[in-house]
């Protein structure tokens, strides 16, 4: 497999009521590449959003759900979610400003 670049690490932001409430304390939630580690996620956030400084990263792996279509069973894709905590002196991420 090819090396994962910083622009491949973050797939999309997670926008739920719980994640929107966490943004008041500078915690942002993203769906990330399943093979990305915490260091890669930290570097990707700092490069993609200038002026941000990451204090910590928490990750969680979500397994695929079993789905059924008639007699056939299958699984949805597994995903990885990351919650990024920014430092106090860091700028906020502009992506979430209008929400």
CATH topology: Alpha-Beta Plaits
Assess the beta-strand content as a share of residues.
35-45%
- The CATH architecture comes to 2-Layer Sandwich
Strand order of the largest sheet: 1-2-6-3
Percent helix range: 10-25%
Please write the CATH class name. Alpha Beta
Could you list the spans in which at least 5 consecutive residues all have pLDDT below 50? none
C-alpha end-to-end distance: 36 Å
User: What is the C-alpha radius of gyration, as a whole number of Å?
Assistant: 15 Å
Structural class label = alpha+beta
Order of helices and strands: HEHEHEEEE
Mean model confidence by pLDDT: 91
Overall outline? globular
The number of helical runs is 3
Which helices and strands occur, and which strands form pairs?
Elements: H1 6-9, E1 10-13, H2 17-22, E2 27-32, H3 38-48, E3 54-62, E4 66-69, E5 72-75, E6 79-86
Antiparallel strand pairs: 1-2, 2-6, 3-6, 4-5
Mind explaining what this structure looks like?
It is globular, with a radius of gyration of 15 Å. The longest helix is centred in the middle third of the chain and has 11 residues, at 38-48. The N and C termini lie far apart (36 Å). The strands form two sheets. The chain has a four-stranded antiparallel β-sheet. A two-stranded antiparallel ribbon has the order 4-5. The protein contains three helices and six strands, in the order H-E-H-E-H-E-E-E-E. The model has no long low-confidence stretch (mean pLDDT 91). By secondary structure, it is of the alpha+beta class. 21% of the residues lie in helices and 35% in strands. It has helices at residues 6-9, 17-22, 38-48; strands at residues 10-13, 27-32, 54-62, 66-69, 72-75, 79-86. Strand 4 and strand 5 form a beta hairpin. The chain has a single domain (6-87), classed as Alpha-Beta Plaits (2-Layer Sandwich), CATH 3.30.70.330.
């Amino acid at each position: 497999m090819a090396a994962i670049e910083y622009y491949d690490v973050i797939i999309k932001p997670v926008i739920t009521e719980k994640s929107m409430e966490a943004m008041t304390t500078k915690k942002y939630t993203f769906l990330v590449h399943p093979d990305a580690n915490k260091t890669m996620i930290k570097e990707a956030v700092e490069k993609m959003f200038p002026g941000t400084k990451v204090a910590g990263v928490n990750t969680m792996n979500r397994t695929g759900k079993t789905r059924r279509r008639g007699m056939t069973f299958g699984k949805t894709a597994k995903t990885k979610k990351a919650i990024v905590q920014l430092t106090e002196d860091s700028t906020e991420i502009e992506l979430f400003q209008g929400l």
